[in-house]
Structures are given as structure tokens and as C-alpha cells.
Amino acid sequence: MKTGRVVGTVVSPQQHPFYDGRKQLIVRYTRPDGTYADDAYAVAIDQVGAGIGQDVLVLDEGNSARQLLSLAPSGPTRAVVVGIIDAVNT
Amino acid sequence: MKLGRVVGTLVANTRVDGMDGLKLLVVTPLTADLRDAGSSFVATDASAQAGPGCLVTYESSREAALLHHPRFVPVDHAIVGIVDQHHCPEET
Fold first, then answer.
1. What CATH number is given to the structural domain containing B11?
2. How far apart are CA A14 and CA A1, in angstroms?
3. Can you give the pLDDT at residue B91?
4. Dihedral (CA of A61, B45, A49, A4) sign
5. Is B32 within 8 Å of chain A by CB?
6. pLDDT of B54 over the 70 cut
7. How is residue B44 annotated by DSSP?
8. Which of A6, A24, A36, A41 is the best substitution to test chain B (most B C-beta atoms within 10 A)?
9. What CATH topology corresponds to A2-84?
């Protein structure tokens, strides 16, 4: 999983039906010290009610995302916000 | 998913069987704040409505093929949806 910060949202009324009703967050990946990892980002499905500005934990792997969203084997998704970060100690 | 801009269409009448009937679009990848982010690629259109000029979300690798489920399609990029609202305020 990766650490990231929610920097925005995306709304797409015309999209693949799987994504209907799922909140899509723009998450820029961060290093453990909180700085942005260059331009690395993902549009992730929100599962924990995260908002803009929050540091979050992002799962970026298809099979786990499908199991999490109980859609195995056919859910066409990969990036999912699975947690809101309270603290990072390195 | 990532963000991209459709910049053109592509026609390839001779193609492998799994790809027949799929619309092919040329897409430029974008950063979170919509700056160009590298070389274009070709994606199929799983939203079935995208055209040149559209801001879109796209998936890659296995998830791109799964967008056309249950059909087996040998594709590595596919457009998920057309972005209506892109809200990405400056540093928060």
C-alpha cells in the first residue's frame, strides 16, 4: 500500500456502470515524511469517507481491491482508499 | 485510475480476434492537475461515448481488460469514464 494525500475529486456521470455511486478521489502519493512523490497520483475509490487535504492509505493492486469490494473476479478497479492516516513514525 | 485527454481516434481494420468491434482512441496521460504527463497511448473506450477533446479517466493492465468483462479482450488501456467535474484546489 502507499501513503498519499487527497487533493481533489472527480465526477463522471458518463462512465462504466461499476463506478456508479462510488466516490472518486484524486490522491497524490507522498513519501513517509509527507512530501509529494513527484507527480505520482491515482484516482482512487473512497471506502473510508476521506476528504480533500487528508492523508490516506491507498491500496493499489487489483486482486485485493476486487476482494475488498467483494467483486472478484470481475471488478475493473485497482486504486482504493483503505484508511485515513493519523500518524507516521519513521 | 488515472486522468487523460482524448486527442484522436485510430483505425486498425486488421486486428486480433479479441479486439473486433472495439473503438480505439489516442489518449495523452495527464497529471492530477491536468498537465501533460508523457507520451500518448491507445485505449479502447469502455465508456462508449468518449471522443477527441474529452477529459477521461482510464485504467491500465488487467483492470483495462476487465472493463470489457465478460468478453476477453487483449487490451492494456481502457477508458472508464468522461470527467464532468475535476475539482483539484491548490495546495491545501
1. 2.40.50.220
2. 29
3. 58
4. positive
5. yes
6. yes
7. E
8. A41
9. OB fold (Dihydrolipoamide Acetyltransferase, E2P) (2.40.50)
8 Å CB contact of B62 and A62: yes
* A19 vs B contacts (CB less than 8 Å): 80-81
Q: Which of B47, B69, B92 sits opposite A15 (nearest CB)?
A: B47
Contacts of A86 (CB under 8 A, 6+ apart): none
Nearest to B32 among A7, A14, A73 (CB): A7
pLDDT at B36 over 90: yes
ipTM: 0.83
Interchain CB distance below 8 Å, B80 and A10: no
% of chain A with per-residue pLDDT over 70 = 100
List b or e across A22-53, with b for residues whose CB sees 16 or more CB atoms inside 10 angstroms: ebbbbbbbbeeeeebeeeebbbbbbbeebeee
Contacts of A44 in chain B (CB under 8 A): 1
